[in-house]
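quick one, 153 residues, struct below
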Amino acid sequence: MTSPEQLEAVARAIIDENRYMTLGTADESGVPWVSPVWYAPAGYREFFWVSYPDARHSRNITARPQIAIVIFDSRAPVGSGQGVYMPAIAEELTGAVLDQGIQIFSRRSELQGQRGWSRDDVQQPARLRLYRATASEHFVLDAGDRRIPVSLE
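---
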């Protein structure tokens, strides 16, 4: 059996070391859609990404902000992969929280050798918008392949 501390360490490492997360969204009728997005975490509860507001997952978030997220290393050998599973609430950022969010997103972008981002890159007349998901829980798989809640405060 894997200890809670070991599972928490696994979850932190997965979030810290990966670049893409998969968003699970649904439209107003409940039709599901999944999309990979490059993300910038703020701790282990907030995740930022940029998308086109007319992308299917963005439209779904507008209609139904409850989403699911999974972060995993798709290069792991078969049978050895781990993931972090999170229910979350997503939103397009505007106003004062947009400034904080774009700083977090830009810093992560620059740390990974990409360009910096500013508020002008994610508001009219620009085509992209900044989004944030706030996770309410975190789960990882234990050695018995059961989803176990972990605390990442």
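The radius of gyration is 16 Å.
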